[in-house]
């Protein structure tokens, strides 16, 4: 069976200190602690600014062997350029160090703003430009702008598939044409729980499933009740088994997703404002027995020898 990855979006939040993170834990050890309390983290600093190869390499070194990161792509591409003339910015992003995550590199998340409407030609051209493996990503990275000369990462570290997920926030995307476009490119449509603010869609468009749980009552703030977590656990169980929940909320109900024995699942809690995300993630990990291999517990000091 494919793996299930459950974790948090970002890890450096001031309110988490002395709560999720034990008192006295230094900031430069927060990733070490968090990556031993959940089995995956979505990097979101990359959304706001290009990171550096050294930083990605440090993140790789600070996390356990079987850990997986997802990476949120730059808003400069999705929110500012809005997918127009993005070849060089794409090259810069992949040259910024993403490939330094090596075997711990999971999907790339492309989040679009609420004002961005579906344009089939523009969106299709964008998907055509996305690298489908690490060698293609490295080749693209070598086309970076001169300003990155001397501080770019352009090595593939072996050939591995590179996955992409798209999060939409405008109702114009809720058309079958969009779903079919994603399926042609094996790009996942993010299942985003946004307290009803933006479209909620569960169409399976890829060989993996990507969930972002922002809060079901209050965006970015409300925690999930045991009943809500049980419901999400049931859905993850179905998707992981290659199935679709009977009550799935679909854009395209006329065309079924390709049958699979199993789908890899990536689930990230983004309800961080009131320090709910890491605790909710941990409860869902417990549902699948994935907590037994994690040596740190939210809110408790790490056992001696656990952190590097």
Automatic annotation (TrEMBL):
Gene3D superfamilies: Protein of unknown function UPF0759
Domain of life: Bacteria
InterPro entries the record matches: DUF72, UPF0759_sf
Pfam families: DUF72
Name of the molecule in the record: DUF72 domain-containing protein
Lineage: Bacteria, Pseudomonadati, Pseudomonadota, Gammaproteobacteria, Pseudomonadales
């Amino acid at each position: 069976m494919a793996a299930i990855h459950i974790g948090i979006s970002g890890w450096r939040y001031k309110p988490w200190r002395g709560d999720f993170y034990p008192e006295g834990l230094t900031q430069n050890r927060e990733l070490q602690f968090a990556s031993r309390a959940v089995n995956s983290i979505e990097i979101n600093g990359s959304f706001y600014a290009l990171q550096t190869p050294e930083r990605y390499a440090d993140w790789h070194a600070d996390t356990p062997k079987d850990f997986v990161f997802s990476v949120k792509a730059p808003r400069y591409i999705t929110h500012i350029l809005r997918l127009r003339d993005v070849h060089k910015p794409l090259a810069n992003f992949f040259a910024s160090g993403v490939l330094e995550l090596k075997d711990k590199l999971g999907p790339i998340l492309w989040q679009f703003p609420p004002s961005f409407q579906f344009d089939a030609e523009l969106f299709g051209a964008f998907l055509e430009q996305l690298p489908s493996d690490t060698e293609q990503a490295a080749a693209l990275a070598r086309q970076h702008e001169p300003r990155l000369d001397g501080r770019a990462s352009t090595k593939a570290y072996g050939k591995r598939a590179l996955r992409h997920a798209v999060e939409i926030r405008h109702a114009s995307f809720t058309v079958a044409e969009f779903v079919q476009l994603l399926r042609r490119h094996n790009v996942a449509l993010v299942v985003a729980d946004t307290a009803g603010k933006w479209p909620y869609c569960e169409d399976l468009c890829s060989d993996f499933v990507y969930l972002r749980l922002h809060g079901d009552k209050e965006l970015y703030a409300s925690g999930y009740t045991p009943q809500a977590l049980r419901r999400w656990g049931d859905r993850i169980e179905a998707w992981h088994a290659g199935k679709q929940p009977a009550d799935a909320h679909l854009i395209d109900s006329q065309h079924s997703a390709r049958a699979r024995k199993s789908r890899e699942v990536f689930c990230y809690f983004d309800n961080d404002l009131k320090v709910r995300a890491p605790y909710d993630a941990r409860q869902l990990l417990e549902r699948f027995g994935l907590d037994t291999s994690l040596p740190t517990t939210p809110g408790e000091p790490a056992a001696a020898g656990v952190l590097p």
